[in-house]
Specification:
mainly beta, Immunoglobulin-like, eight-stranded antiparallel beta sheet, four-stranded antiparallel beta sheet, 38 strands
């Protein structure tokens, strides 16, 4: 994978995409959403929701004193323009970070507070992102232990929330006080809970470590009409590793307990979760599909390199056409970078990796995604190599894969066939160049280039470019 990632960077540089911070714009340009003291960087979470007008809203907490914080919200247009920040909540002592969901033509936020109101609170705003209503109490059960929530809408449009408490995962339905159900923790520590709804199924997925039961990434269905647990808990395969006779959970190694387990409901069916595998060195990134149970496990990144320093902070997002985006932070001797891949429309295979490094580099960081039909928004919570804390935004295009096919000799010429693919699917309109000649791919993703024969084989490089993609290249000997 290392050579493919290097290729992605080379293409990004060649296309002028890896540039310094700017006021938003095309994929590859970074914008600062927030910076300065009071941010938690990788030890915090953001709320992300896209309203019906296509605008993305990002909510984040910033501490203003020893016991006080504010929650700010910024909007981001489809093409990456970041709007001014809006103070949604102030004057509260907050026990965790906010969750955000688009509902009823506007936005609804959930957040845990300790003062002046104790419990899980909610506030609303129109789709414009302002003004925000005064916070109202959702529930004060489990109040002393409530942490960063996650939220998804049940089929009837009612919000389902989950958060972690001591030993257990809590689930609540609605926006008024009512039953809070707990998902038993098997004697371990349970955290990083997230929730997603796929038709009549609602899944809660979280990280478990310690204790006497199964550890790793755990999934359980809940009843979307009540929030009550339904069916057995599932241990997602590969999410724990036996090392010297002990089972280790990698989800607690790749992210802090302030984070959510990556989870997304796919358009067209299926809920997808992401995590890592390997101990003591995390050497794989996994994506699981949940239907009635675990129906598929996909390895999206893997390495055996002795110089590799591990993967961390995976993230997921579902696009409106059935595709899934996955991203993670990768570290090796060259430093840290954010890597992402997009799936095919069926969500069964992933395309070429693309990567970016934010201005200031990455000392510690985490990633959130929000996918569109042609790209994904990426929100990075970072501590730069110089120590500065920030939340930054960019967008990513998917990566092309270029495959050299047949080589047919005809007289003094050689016809070389190439295929341009997006996660295994053919891409039309890709410009392929090799040996000073070029051709454009047809509907089947194929292009043919005629080259003159030479006395000795030579090494050539073919490149593939198309608007809306990160380009690709392949080297070959010819002719």
């Amino acid at each position: 994978m290392g050579s493919r990632l290097s290729l992605a960077v080379a293409v990004l540089v060649a296309c002028g995409l890896l540039v310094g911070a700017a006021a938003g714009g095309p994929p590859g340009r970074w914008t600062t959403v927030a910076s300065g003291s009071g941010l938690g960087a990788a030890a915090s979470e953001v709320g992300v929701a896209r309203t019906a007008d296509g605008v993305l809203h990002v909510a984040y907490k910033q501490d203003t004193g020893p016991l006080t914080s504010v929650i700010r919200v910024r909007s981001i247009t489809r093409v990456g323009r970041v709007g001014p920040d809006v103070v949604a909540v102030s004057g509260f002592g907050l026990a965790g970070d906010p969750a955000l969901v688009a509902v009823g033509g506007g936005l609804r936020m959930f957040f845990p507070a300790g003062a002046p109101i104790e419990g899980m609170l909610t506030a609303t705003a129109p789709a414009s992102g302002s003004p925000w209503s005064a916070p109202a109490l959702v529930t004060n059960q489990e109040l002393a232990r409530a942490r960063t929530p996650s939220v998804a809408l049940a089929p009837d449009g009612v919000p389902l929330q989950t958060w972690y408490s001591v030993g257990d995962i809590a689930v609540h339905r609605g926006v008024t006080p009512g039953p809070v159900f707990t998902l038993p923790g098997a004697g371990g520590t349970n955290a990083q809970s997230n929730i997603a709804v796929d038709g009549s199924r609602a899944w809660v997925v979280w990280c478990r470590f310690g204790g006497g039961g199964p550890v790793g990434t755990i999934a359980q269905q809940v009843n979307p009409a009540s929030g009550a647990p339904a069916g057995p808990q599932l241990h997602l395969p590969g999410s724990s590793t036996t090392f010297e006779g002990t089972q280790y959970s990698t989800c607690v190694l790749h992210a802090t307990i302030a984070r959510r387990t990556p989870l997304a409901a796919r358009a067209g069916g299926g809920v997808y979760a992401a995590g890592t595998s390997g101990y003591p060195r995390i050497n794989r990134v996994l994506v699981w599909r949940l239907d009635g149970g675990v129906s598929r496990t996909i390895v999206v990144a893997s390495t055996r390199s002795a110089t590799h320093l591990g993967y961390s902070e995976p993230a997921l997002a579902a696009a409106p056409d059935g595709r899934i985006w996955v991203a993670w932070i990768q570290r090796d001797a060259r430093g840290a970078r954010i890597v992402a891949r997009r799936s095919n429309r069926a969500g069964t295979a992933f395309g070429a990796p693309v990567q970016v490094v934010p201005p200031g580099g990455i000392s510690t960081g985490s990633v959130n995604l929000a996918a569109q039909a042609d790209r994904t928004d990426l929100i990075a919570l970072l501590q730069g190599t110089g120590g500065a804390l920030s939340i930054r935004h960019t967008q990513l295009w998917p990566g092309l894969t270029l495959v050299r096919g047949s080589v047919v000799r005809r007289g003094r010429n050689v016809i070389v066939t190439f295929r341009a693919l997006d996660a295994g699917e053919p891409v039309r309109g890709v410009r392929v160049r090799a040996g000073g000649r070029s051709a454009t791919t047809a509907a089947n993703g194929t292009a043919r280039i005629t080259l003159g024969r030479t006395a000795r084989p030579r090494r050539l490089t073919a490149t593939a470019t198309r608007a809306g993609y990160v380009g690709a290249r392949v080297s070959f000997r010819c002719c």
